[in-house]
Structure formats: C-alpha cells, structure tokens
C-alpha cells in the first residue's frame, strides 16, 4: 500500500520501464516491490519508448534499488514490445533464475544480455520475430533447464550448434511454428563443437509439435530418445520415406502421433502402422538411370537437330548452285556471224 498522498510520476517520451509487466523479486516466499527507475528498454514503434520512474511499496517502506536487484529471481517482460536489450541489463541481478521475454519483437536472440544472467534456469522466448536460430545463440546459458521457443511465426531454421551449450537442459519446447521446415541434425551440438565439449540434449521432454517439418534426421542419439519421458512430434506434414526409418525405434505412443502426409499411398497413416520396408527412398541407381536416360534423349535430340540442320544447309546450297547455273544459261546470247556464199549459176542446170 502506498503512503497517503503519494502520486506516481508521469512518464516521459524517450524510454519506457516494464512496470506493467509482472516484475517482482521472490525472497523466502515473499514478494517485494521493484523501484524500476533504471529499466530503460527500447520499444518498437507500436509501443512508443518512454521512461517511467515509479516506485512500489511494501507496507510503508520504499526499498532502495541497490538492495533490491541482487535479490531479483523472477522477471516477466512478456508482451512489452521489446526489440533489444541493453547488454548489461542483468548484471545487477546475479540470482535471476526465471525470465520471460515472450510476445515481443526480437529478431535475434539477445545473447549478450542473457549471458549476464548466469543462474538463469527458465527462459521463455516464444512469440518473437526470429527467422533462424544460429550457431552459439545459447552458448553461455549452461544453467537453463527449461527453454520455450513456441509460436515463432517467422522461424524457418534451427542451424548447427544453435542449441549447443545448454548442458542442463531438461525440457525443450519448440512447437506451433508454422514456417519451421529445418532442424539440423547437429542443432544440439556437433562432435567437434568449439562451443561446448558436452553435447546438449534434453533429459526429460522434447516438443516439436505442429511445425512445418517434412523430414528430420535424428538430432539425438537413439539412447537419448529412449531416456526421454515424453516426446511430441505430432501434427507435422511428415514425408514418410527412408529418412524417417529411425523414428520406428521411438516409443509406440510417439509413433502413433506421427502421421504421414506423403507419399500419397501412405497419407493419413500413423507411423506405427507403416513397416520399415514401406519407408522407401528412390535408390541412387534408379536416379542415375533416370538421369542417364534423360541425358541420352537430350544427346539424341541434339544429334537429330544437328543432322537436320546440315542436310537443310546442304540442300539449300545445292538448290542455290543449280539455280545460279540455270540463271547463267538463260543469259547466254547467240553468236551471230556473217558467211559469204559463192553462187555457181551452172549448178542450176
């Protein structure tokens, strides 16, 4: 409750704090107020930037900022129009373990700022504008055990080593991303990764539900899949061919929720009802034969066209020569000569 007569200061027009978010510190089960006058965070054009200086109270006491920040454990910045974070934002909060940056306008993972939260365990980046997750985006978040990357409408790719460094990861949720078409088989870390010597893998749960995945090379070792308590790969437009044979080793309840979208003869069938022999890919020999056949046809067509061109050319040349000769014959003029004949009158008798 605020002291009698207390009136909060009005906001300026340059920066905005996050007072309308659920910002609170929890210490021994109690919530204490956050006088957030230093929360200068950039907003997009729809949430115009401004700076507020607003105090919250516990009883009649105002807590000094420098004594509050080291106790901050939970910070909710959901749906505040954020586009970027100051690199040192979390430096004064060494015990921050829960953070939500969901439903904002980040185009890139705020790596630098997040690296200053070494105790972070729960991170929600859902609903932002990422188009891809790139190598090393989470390299310094070795304590994070719960990572949420849902409802990312622009996300298309998760690249090699993008999730490397998340060595304490228990649950990975990356669902409802309508344009996610590619997850690299080494997204959780490559064998010779320079980011982390230990390969990342979720230890309990993996959610890749309702994305746009048609195929997937196993990003985990098979023994890691079997150790997971829950796997959700449902509602993706799976192309059931030889590239998905490894999924036949997943638990039956997982396979039942993987439904084929193509090829046509398997459409609508759960993977659990498809035999390994039905998961076919065009063989290399068949493809090679097809390419050779097409190449032969192309070569034959070129030969025919070339021969035709030569014949036509020669025919035209022959007709031209004959026509030229005939024309020259037509131009020949008869040679006129005068011959003197002697007449013998005796021959008439």
UniProtKB/TrEMBL annotation:
Gene3D superfamilies: Ribonuclease Inhibitor
Keywords assigned by UniProt, alphabetized: Leucine-rich repeat, Membrane, Repeat, Signal, Transmembrane, Transmembrane helix
Transmembrane region(s): 285-312
Domain LRRCT residue range list: 236-282
Keyword Membrane: yes
Entry-linked Pfam families: LRR_8 (PF13855), LRRCT (PF01463)
Domain of life: Eukaryota
UniProt-recorded name of the protein: Leucine-rich repeat neuronal protein 3
UniProt gene name: Lrrn3
